[in-house]
Predict the structure.
Amino acid sequence: MKPTVAGQGEAQAVSAEQSFSARQVLASLSLSMLLSSLSTSIANVGLPTLAQAFGASFQAVQWVVLAYLLAVTTLIVSAGRLGDLVGRRRLLLAGLTLFTLASILCGLAPTLWLLIAARAAQGLGAAVMMALTMAFVSDTVPKEKTGSAMGLLGTMSAIGTTLGPSLGGALIAGFGWRAIFLINVPLGLLTLLLAYRYLPADRPRQPERAGFDHPGTLLLALTLAAYALAMTLGRGSFGALNVALLSAALIGAGVFVLVEGKASSPLVRLKMFDNPVLSAGLATSVLVSTVMMTTLVVGPFYLAGAFGLQAALVGLVLSVGPLVAAFTGVPAGRIADRFGAERMIFVGLAGIAAGCFLLSLLPDGIASYVASLAIMTGGYAVFQAANNTTVMTDIQPQQRGVVSGMLNLSRNLGLITGASVMGAVFALASSAHDVATAQPNALAMGMRITFAIGGMLMILALAIALGGRVLALKSVGR
């Protein structure tokens, strides 16, 4: 029996309403991702101004950045797990509220240490926002369009990272340092309104819900905090404190595995890592983020020292990378939807590897640097959209929050590791105690060696991705 004209009209109306609702959901999730990434990068440009405003040392004001980074890194997996337990909509609204209120406190803080405390609270809100955005995509977007949605979130993250330093500089110049935090307030309120209006309601609670793993949460937070501090304290030097913190992180990781293996309701179910797609996706994400951070570590010293560029021009050249990622994120997601996300992971990794090896082989020059950087970041956009889609697609609904948190954690750990380890590689390869005063030839050699190592790390990532794919095929008996 054919549907009537009225029935067809009703079906079209329902479809249009669902499409409109999906767009509003993606708008709220995109703004959530934009805010969290913007707040990561916008504060860095204000450190000299904050040091002057509070009469504090660089070591003291750097905690404005570290407090946010530590809160996000240590709590993002726990935030994802909590969302799985209490409801993602409920927790995301709470995270947005906390982020907005903390932004007000940051902008009004009368002392440096109150500002640092408010930044930690802001980081807690951002951890919730980051952990739950990708989980909501898997809940609300049709499977065949997941890649496009993941690409959009990657684009918003790149825009936030790109916009942070330039917007922060303009706000400080026009309105003072408090504006770099207060700018989040109207954006946070808009995001909160959209999320409250359009995010789907949480599923009804089950009669018997698994409890929250408090010991595992505390252990993971302390372990990640020790690792993050080991990699960031000391401004490039690795002393006894760094060694002690790194040792504590390794011990903490071992204890965490033992505790989670015996817990009745673990924070992270270790059996999840039997899934080769998940394990390979997290491992390659760490490696890729480590290599991409190299462009931000090496780039300023190489461009300023080898070519004598002023800070404004250095920033302009470095913005090419995030801009390419921003413009290619959505198309990369659509390509992943069309040709298969698993296949496009290899394309993205190959693009990053190609950019690294070109930087290590091409003649010195700004044009060749920009071209190679564009290839790298284009590959990064493809990888991010494809990898996030592949990892999140087949995850059970009750585990999407914690897996989303683990994906974001892998990215953060890569960024922290890249800033420390690849920065040390660059200094060592440049044969300079202080790269800020190194000779142009030494900086060029350091850049080449560092990106050659980055290219080899991408070869390793390709091998891990291939191994994960082979194991996944064997597990389904193909």
